[in-house]
Each structure stands twice: as structure tokens, then as C-alpha cells.
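Render this sequence as a predicted structure.
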Amino acid sequence: MQKENTNTAEKTVSDYPYVIEMRNITKEFPGIIANDNITLQLKRGEIHALLGENGAGKSTLMSVLFGIYQPEKGQILKDGKEVKINNPNDANALGIGMVHQHFKLVDVFTVLDNIILGVEPNTLGFLRKKKAREKVMELSKNYGLNIDPDALVEDITVGMQQRTEILKMLYRDNDILIFDEPTAVLTPQEITELMQIIKGLAKEGKSILFISHKLNEIMSIADRCTVLRKGRYVGTVNVAETTKEELSNMMVGREVKFSVDKAEAIPGEKILEVKNLTVKSKLHKKNAVNNVSLDVRAGEIVCIAGIDGNGQSEFVYALTGLEKPEPGSVIILDGVDITKKSIRFKNTHGMSHIPEDRHKYGLVLDYSLEENLVLQRYFEKDFQNHGFIRFDKVRQYSEDLIDEFDIRSGQGPLTPARGMSGGNQQKAIIAREMDREHKLLIAVQPTRGLDVGAIESIHKQIVESRDSGTAVLLISLELDEVMNLSDRILVMYEGEITGHLDPKTTTIQELGLYMSGAKRDDGKAHGEGGVE
């Protein structure tokens, strides 16, 4: 471990070792010190990782650097000279750009319009979009960021949205680039592409701050890594001189297991049975889900693996009631046909759902944490009396879940969901869905945005849920999670189940072939739908 020298001796810009220094930064919110006297030093041309648990203060620190927040104490130096960053425009003027964890794009604008928004080239007030397009396409070609400038953001993949955000920074000639959890919503293929792009940016002389929970990514891409824990600085290390285990210990303060401990599954009765499920696509003429049949039994974890955009989302939407399946589709939960039942009926008859998009489908962001934790239970007799909510019971229940699932929030149960970190928002959803009485748990990317300590805990809880007789349907893009957590793997490609794999006998390479469509089977050797 090394701690950087904060010597303030006079130096020229060219000699000064750090392009950015954040010295003794303190940032407070009601009830919490998010950053407590943190010093961070970024060298020119390096990829510097920022690692920490959910709620450790990483995004807050970067938001201070980008001018979104103003610190109570501390100073920021650019090339050895103190600067004042009052807002993101000041940051951009200093060459600092940021790709946020939750993208800042206008859905109904085109890719090009989003990239140039706020810095549109004009002559006498007339927009010169042709000139802007030429610059964007040149940047796109030079950095391998292939985009369609005329596509609407609402119609493109998450990976393309991220490329749009990166081009926004490059278009503004930023040379200090902040990536806040950049891989949290990407497929494995998109992650590989992004890593190559970031390495290319560093070779071009860009200085990069890379926030991540994923130790494998940090080990493969970063030069140095600064670790935060509970808002405080732990240390800075050279990545080439450390290990995953050492970094995880610095991050959570204890040893973390990277493998999932679980006994052999003992499948019981069918809990979920899906027959001939078909869902139309909103983007093209082909069906998003095409005649899919499968079942999940009590006491097993069945994982649907696949590259994002191959029908997994629409499949889950149809199961949970967020989207209507086509006629002829049948969904049976514990012997009851729920195909046309309401979402509340499904929730009160044994289905729990951890959704892929925590903001759209998981939380009411302007509600408090405690209100979000009882969203599906407030009408139960434990929480209401003659139509009046018993807020004392809600408070006690939420405090219990906050403790059990280690949900970190400045004002406890009263914290607005919008003000929580992404990882703690995810923990809140998991707590709510896991605690409810359920026979089927549909978990879509359940560990997205969580640190290694939280992932270890959530995996343990999912296995315990399985062992208590719950049927678990897992949808994950994380290949390690698929291989470690699943009892059976079904691969979805272009809306169909094309692979039925046993995680004990298959490999990640074989799984990748099925996910890319290079290999498939018809499931005849595996029983109906490949699930017996």
C-alpha cells in the first residue's frame, strides 16, 4: 500500500506529477458524512480505479470533481493550481468529463443531438449540424465507437447509449474522463469492447478515473487503485503489485469468498410452468419471445443466460405482468393459471420479482426508503388498520430490513430513494422481494451494481431461499454468476431457448457459443422444454 505525497512545492505544469489532485475533501449530507477528508491524486495518462463498497462515497467524490456537489472542506488542483468547480460547465471548461452510472441522455433526441447538446456549433444563431456531424463521425471512427447519429436514444441498446455518453466527452475535448460504474448495465461482449476503448483513450494521453465494484476489471485495466470504505480513504496501491483478495479485504475489511457454497439441488414439485409463451417485439417484426416453454421446480435455481436483447427482458415482462403475451401463451404459478392475472394477484400469490431496471420498475424514487420497502405490503393487516397505514409498524419493519440487508442511507427509513447510491437502491429492492412470502423468485441481474461483499451476501440468500423450497428463476449477464449460482442453465438466443446446459459439465467457452448462436440444441434429450 502506498500513500501519495501531497507536497505543495512550486512546480511548472509540465513537471507537476498530477493532472488532478483532490485534497482533504469532505462532503456531508443530512445524517451522513459521504466523504471524510479524502485525498485522491490522478497522474497524467493513467487509468486510476476508485474502489469501495456501495455507499462508500465514490460517486459523491466524483460528483464533487465534476461540479455537481460543493464540498464543505478541501481543495481541487488542476496541474498543480487550485481551481473552483461550481458546476459541470466549469468542469468541462477544465477538460473534465463524466459518464454517469445512470446516463444523462434525452430519450426522444437523436444520438447526434444528445452529443452536441449544450455546445451546438452555430453561426449568427443558426445551428451548423453538418459540421458537428463530421466531428462526431470522425471521433467515432478514431476511437472505435460505432454509432448511428440519427437513431433515437430510446431505440438503441444500453451499450450504444454508453458510447453516446463517451462521445459527449470526446466532442467537448475533455482529457480527464470519469467513468462511474461503466460496466454495470453492459453485456460481457460490450464490457470487453469498453475495456479496449478505455485503454485506447489512455494511450491517447487521456487521464481516466474508473469507478467499479468489479475486481477482475480493475485488475485488468487499472494502473493504480484508491480504496474508500464508509466515506474514508483506506489507501492507494499499484494494481500490478496487489491481488483481488487484498483489494477486497481493503474494500470490505474482511476476507470475501469468490465462490458460491451450495449443496446439490433437490428439485421438488413444479412451481412455474410456461407453455408456448410468445411476445411481440416493439422494435421489429420478429417476435421478441417465440414459443418458449420451460418450468422451474421448488428447490432449484434455473438461469436464463444470453446476450442482452435476445428476449430475456420481454420474457420476464410477460411473466410478471409488465407486458401482455400473445394468445396461446400459458403461465402457471403453483397450479394457478396467471397468464391474464393482475400484477398484484401475482405478487400476493407467491411471485417475487427483482427487476432489471431499478428506477423504472423497482422503486418510486420520490418516496422514502420505508415507503418503498412496503410498496407491495402496505395493504396487509400488519401495516394498516381500517384503511389507515400504521406508520409505526412500517418504521419498525423497514428498520429491521435496513439492518438485515445492510442498506446504507443518511436518514435511515426516511431517506428519499432518489438520494441513495445505486447499490443501496438495489439492496432495498432485494430486501423487499426476498422478505416477502414467495414460492417463485424471479431475479433479473440481482447483483447489478453491488460490491463483492454484497454479492457474496445476496448469493448466499438466494441459495438459502432455494434450499427452503423456493423456485428461483435467475436472469443474468454475468457469466461467473451464471456458472456459480445455477443448477440448470437455459440459453436464450433470438427469443428462443437454444441451449440446455448443466453448469457442472459445461464451460464458459461452450456457454459463449450458445449465447452467440454458433451452437444450439433442440432439448429433446432433456425432457419437455429441456427442464426435467
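Summary. Confidence is low (pLDDT under 50) at residues 1-12, 523-532. Residues 1-95+175-253 form a domain with the Rossmann fold fold (CATH 3.40.50.300).
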